[in-house]
Amino acid sequence: MIFDTIAAISSPPGTGAISVIRLSGDKVIKVIKELFNMENPKPKYMYYSFLKQNNELIDEVTWVYHKGPKSYTGEDMLEIFGHGGILLTKKILNIILSLGVREALPGEFSKRAVMNKKMDLIKAEAINEMIHANSEYSLKAAASQIDGKLSKDIKELKSVLYNIAARIEVEMDYPDDFEVDNFEFLDSLNSVKEKLNYLYENADNGIAAVEGIKMAIVGKPNAGKSTLLNALLRKDRAIVTDIPGTTRDTIEENLNIRGIYIKVIDTAGIRETGDIVEKIGVERSLKAIEESKMILFVLDNSTGIEDYDLEIFEKIKKYTDKKIVIVINKSDIKNTDKIDIPWKEYKIVKISAANGEIQELENLIYNELKDVVITKEYTLTNERQKNAVKKAIDSIENALNGIHLGLTNDAIMFDVRKSIESLNELTGEDYTETLLDNIFGNFCVGK
User: Fold this and answer.
1) Phi/psi of residue 242, each to 5°?
2) How far, in Å, CA of 122 to CA of 380, rounded?
3) Which end of the chain is more exposed for a tag (fewer CB within 10 A), N or C?
4) Considering only CA atoms, which of 81, 46, 82 is closest in space to residue 64?
């Protein structure tokens, strides 16, 4: 494919030792000639030059030319390494753009790599997930796709399906010369289905590792939820006062506990209220509970268990799929009426959020969640991939059911083809512009 030439700053914004500007497209050689007065640069060779404009020295740089198709995008590419200053780097980019080059869109370099078949969509997404990894587990899950083993195994499964489709098609085209017993395909289809099921069933761990696990801090007003959030984050993120109802909306922050990426949500105190704003906050708190994998139910040691606590827990315990931890806060305050927890079947831990005494809670969170993010040799890492695999499994199941019901070959062929289309969608071999725009719109501009 031939595209226009794009350029972008690939180094992080701000001041640093070195800046990086990348170009890709058919005008790269023209740009090299204009900037460095060189017509036949040697590929993969680092040059040292003075970058000038109208004989005025702009910067002292090094640069590398990558000749397509042996480049990241599959096109001619140029990488310029200059001194890392915001104004200087932007000035060099503007000089390049004045030579008929367009500023790249987010993820456009990687998008071109996929469209030019330099990598598949699985690897492209893995690269982006590695760049944005928030923990060791998320980095490991994303890195599991980089070596291409998952893509290779998907390709082998598609090969099996293509072979089945080809044999059915030959029989349909030459019914007098070839006769295929559809039951011959059962073992092959069941084998493909089994392998895809394994991927699908283990996908949640990979997705949780990369996207993070939602954990809601829940309790009555003034139980110390916001103080606990601040203690977990090791910073003052939420406003803390003795006035009930201070937190009137949910607050979400990212947290890393021993390599586990957690999206922790401080919720508004759940209670009946006539305040319209606080009422909205309570509704959002209930939604946060529904969406979270783990719930920290905070009790106030200084007040003991009150009716509010009992009412809130009735709302929580109906979610049997959640990991619920009962957190007794303000344990440093001596309470003559010792809290008697009626819910002995749940994990219980005592803390003093105000004093930062939360290590036992952090250990408990880690032990409860580590199995959720441990991944196999390789894994799916986002909902798009999981949905594509699920569609392929459904189509294979339809084909298997069709064989058992004695449906015609064209019906079996339809479902086999649909499963191939779903796997092509997974790897990016069958894409739409909308799909690619949605995926690469979340990438860095220079990637």
Assistant:
1) -85, 0
2) 9
3) N
4) 46
User: With contact defined as beta carbons under 8 Å apart, do 289 and 266 qualify?
Assistant: no
| Order of strands across the sheet that contains 251-257 | 251-257, 260-266, 213-219, 294-300, 323-329, 347-350
User: Which residues, 6 or more positions from 332, have their beta carbon under 8 angstroms from its beta carbon?
Assistant: 352, 354, 355, 357
Q: Are 409 and 182 in contact (CB under 8 A)?
A: yes
Write out the two tokens for 220.
Answer: 């009555």
In the chain, count H helices and then E strands: 15, 12
Here the contacts of 13-18 (C-beta below 8 Å, separation 24 or greater) are 13/86, 14/86, 15/84, 15/85, 15/86, 16/84, 17/83, 17/84, 18/81, 18/82, 18/83, 18/84
Q: Which secondary-structure segment (H or E) carries 300?
A: strand 294-300
Closest-CA residue to 144 (of 379, 404, 403)? 379
- Cα distance between residue 187 and residue 160, in whole Å: 11
Nearest to 316 by CA among 308, 324, 305: 324
Rounded to whole angstroms, what are the CA distances from 151 to 158, 380, 381, 419?
11, 11, 13, 16
Say whether pLDDT at 297 is over 60. Answer: yes
Query: Model pTM greater than 0.70?
Result: yes
State the Cα–Cα distance between residues 437 and 280, nearest whole angstrom: 34
**Coil, strand or helix at 332:** coil
Q: Please give the structure tokens belonging to residue 20.
A: 């990086």
Place of tokens 């980089």: 146
Structure tokens at 318: 């109906």
pLDDT at 18: 93
What's the CA gap between 206 and 379, in Å, rounded?
A: 6
**125-140: pLDDT as tens digits:** 999 999 888 888 888 8
